Structure formats: structure tokens, C-alpha cells
Amino acid sequence: EQMRTIKAIPQMLAFSEVYQALQTGVVDGTENPISNFYTQKMHEVQKYMTITDHGYLGYAVIVNKKFWDGLPADIRTQLETALVEATDYANTIAMDMNKKDLESVKASGKTEVTTLTPEERAAFKTALVPVHDKMASRIGKETIESFYQAVDFKK
User: Fold this and answer.
1) Which of 48, 64, 92, 121 is deepest in the core (most CB within 10 A)?
2) Topology of domain 2-115, per CATH?
3) pLDDT tens-place string over residues 126-152
4) What's the rounded Cα separation, in Å, for the pair 12 and 40?
5) Pairing mode, strands 112-115 and 48-51
6) Residue 48 host element (H or E)
7) Is 0.85 surpassed by the pTM of this model?
8) Residue 93: CB partners within 8 Å, gap ≥ 6?
9) How many CA atoms lie within 13 A of 88 on its CB side?
10) Inter-residue contact 8 to 1 (CB < 8 Å)
């Protein structure tokens, strides 16, 4: 939905087919975290990259409620603390890797990298608001509003 909103024509492919699709011109771009883009060598075959920071890549830790509620409170507290610490650690590593991989993409000279100006980024965010509104029925308006608050976004 995001891609259609910004007038792109999305194509669904198996991840294993993306490199060849870029190489042969079947597709001309991808939406990927920088680390995927670099480790999968897409910079060898994709001419342009725009850093938009338009999405959030999150992971959920899910546990059976009955099991969780059956754990002693002190164990739940320890697990919650460990999860926060592990998440912070993993996020730090991911940010460092993305910075390193972006520099490697730029150094390759094969992909022209553009970073949106603050004004362009604001326009990009605003253009995607209809997608957010559409998703509200699936993920809850409160969830969307909490993301807006976290990134200080005003509609």
C-alpha cells in the first residue's frame, strides 16, 4: 500500500530472486534495510538508493499468556529486564552495521545514494498518512498515535 501511495508499482518476489530481477531489469528498485541491501550485494545491480527512513522494522516477542501468567513475578521481571537489555544491545549493533554498510555501499561507487532533506522527508511522511489511516482498523489508532508521538510527527 505504501508503494502504491507514492506512485511506485510494487512487485512481490521471493527474496532469493531479487538480485537477478534487479540485474535483468525486471525491477528497478527495492525496499530494504541497508544491511540487507549490502549483504545481499544489491548495490552491485541497483543504480540508486534513497534514504527515506519511512518505515519501522520491529520484532515481537510472543509468549503464551497462560505460561507467562504461571511464572513467578520475580522471573517475569528478570525476563522483562533481560529482554529490554537484549533489545537495546541488538538495536545498537544494527545501527552500527547499517552505518558501516551504508559507507560500504557508497564506497563501491555502484549505487548513487541520496538522503532526503528534512523538507522532503516531511513531505514523504505526509504522503503516507492515508496508508496510516487505512491501517488503523488493523493495528489500532492508538498504536499509530504512539508512533507519531515517538517520532514527533504531526499530521
Assistant:
1) 121
2) D-Maltodextrin-Binding Protein; domain 2 (3.40.190)
3) 999 999 999 999 999 999 999 889 888
4) 17
5) parallel
6) strand 48-51
7) no
8) none
9) 6
10) no
